[in-house]
Amino acid sequence: MFSRFLKILKKAQFDKNAAKSFKSYYDKIDKSKAYKRYCKELQGLPCSMQNNLSITQSKNLFKLLNERSDLKILDLGAGSGGLIKSFKDKHSFTGIDLSIDNELLNIKQADYHAFQYIEDYFDLVLSIDSLYLVSDRAGLLRKINSTLKSQGEFHIFMTLLENYEKSSLKKELENIFKSVHVIDNSKEDKELWHEAYEYLLNNKSEFSSESDKRIFNTKLKEIEKNTSLAHKTSRLHIIATKE
Fold first, then answer.
1. Fewer CB within 10 Å, N or C, the chain?
2. How far separated are the first and last CA of the chain, in Å rounded?
3. Residue 123: CATH number of its domain
4. E strands within 92-223?
5. Other CB atoms within 10 Å distance of the CB of residue 182
6. Torsion angle, CA of 232/241/156/94, rounded to 10 degrees?
7. Domain residues for 185?
8. pLDDT tens digit string along 166-217?
9. CB within 8 Å of 131: residues ≥ 6 apart
């Protein structure tokens, strides 16, 4: 009983600290012109977003959002709402984030598990590099499935540190959703990190001129970590469809 209490306490402390840390970082990247250019040139994004989308994944995501209209979309891990700002006139968005509450963009600060999911409500649910923060993944996947309309889609963009075919994620998705389609962007992801490293070093002065080294240092550490793990990771775009 005591060990369970400690686990809950540690999670609460992590959530509290993570919320402050993420909000602080989101505020910085929103104001950074250097980071916005990084997102545009390296990831093909029209806005500042804290994620690891490659240009191919960005194109696939924006093609999905451009080809259809009037969708009810849940953005799981919406950050400061870069994606929502880009498409809020075309779709109806609800965002969830651990650190941000923005009434104008309909982003709610909430734990992913505790959020009140309405059954058969959303046409599309997005998780862009946010599934790592989930403690009960199978439980969340069931909630996502229940909140989707019939034939609704859950799009997951993530890096997996294991073989997907042998992973528990594969089993969970196939047990819960009607169909699962996986697009492997691992090769391009490895190229992205090498290009990003060169880009940062070549444009260090642009970041430095904004008098804040945190963005540059954070991205550099992220790139070095992902480059060192590239031989054992898979960068995936997973599309899970409700029955």
1. N
2. 39
3. 3.40.50.150
4. 92-97, 107-109, 122-128, 148-160, 179-184
5. 16
6. -170
7. 2-241
8. 999 999 999 999 999 999 999 999 999 999 999 999 999 999 998 668 899 9
9. 76, 137, 156, 158
Residue 216, classified by CB atoms within 10 Å of its CB into exposed (0-12), middle (13-18) or buried (19+), is: buried
Q: What single letter denotes the amino acid at residue 17?
A: N
Please give the average per-residue pLDDT across 40-50, as a whole number. 91
Beta strands in 47-187 (DSSP E): 72-76, 92-97, 107-109, 122-128, 148-160, 179-184
Could you tell me the pTM of the whole model? Answer: 0.90
Q: How far is CA 44 from the centre of its chain?
A: 15
- E-state strands within the chain: 72-76, 92-97, 107-109, 122-128, 148-160, 179-184, 234-241
Which pair of tokens denotes residue 173? 């998705």
Q: Which residues pair with 179 in a beta bridge?
A: 241
Alpha-carbon distance 159 to 140, whole Å? 18
Q: Total structural domains in the chain?
A: 1
Residues recorded for the chain: 243
Neighbours of 60 (CB within 10 A): 18
